[in-house]
Design brief:
The protein is mostly beta strands. Helix content is about 0%, strand content about 50%. The longest helix has 4 residues. It is globular, with a radius of gyration of 18 Å. The protein starts with 8 loop residues before the first strand and ends with a strand. About 40% of the residues are buried.
Length: about 300
Amino acid sequence: MSLDPTGTQIQLRLERDGHVVTADIAQVGASLRGLTVDGVDRIARYPEGTPSPSCSGVVLVPWPNRVRDGQWTHEGEAQQLWITEPKLDNAIHGLLRYTPYTVGPSDSSVTLRATVPPQAGYPFLLETSVTYALTVDGITVTHSIRNSGATAAPVAVGVHPFIAVGDAPADQLTITSPGATYLTVDDRLLPTGAAPVTPENDLRDGRRLSDLTLDTAYTDLARDADGRVRHTLTDADGRSTTVWQDEHCDFVQFYTGRDYPGRDVALACEPMTAPAEALNSGTGLHWVDPDDTFVVTWGITAA
């Protein structure tokens, strides 16, 4: 029996009100690697038997994005994280990216759990879980992070799904997102400030995906009446895939990959509670007290 690089594969299925929804979850990184609604892919799949490309679908805890030189300071004491992006000399995407989660029973929902033990650069103990629950038009994802240590712990959450509308190519897809501000970055993709969106990266009125080159974080996200932020990818026939994020997620990162398997341009739409460098800047960082739990939700809907 061969072992998949992404661990045990979990399949979810829901049939209700004339709709059929399925999802594929990988044990390593608790990653969402497939989602279909009535037979149409809403997540850009990648081949079985291969590692997740470009962090596809992976849960990013206890911080998303980058930490400069892997260094930050806690209560006057210098902390040094492992450098996990050697090319740019950064620590990137948290501590669970390559962790095999413990998997619970599944049908139309599943909960995966993983522990963040105290370690170099992050001397805190976290018990984390992520629950994927199918709905009639997509999926709802709930992250729970409990501080099981003795002192308050700094926490941020992000996810890295690559969204799709079936096999529609990039020149037939439009992405719409309500961010009014983007984070400027240096040559190591670390934030240097914030600025109003420009004609080149303003997504509020919709932009054709094939025209975009993004590795860009947005904030000042306009919220709908229910308090959620929504980002929508629409094809030429009007079919759409929408990522929504809750009140804790004040940031979103968009990344356009041009080497993703089977896609001319793949779009990662990444809800985040904090941007890059949060451990140093404190922006969006949540301090979770001992025995308290931080809960974040997001999801995908199809129309």
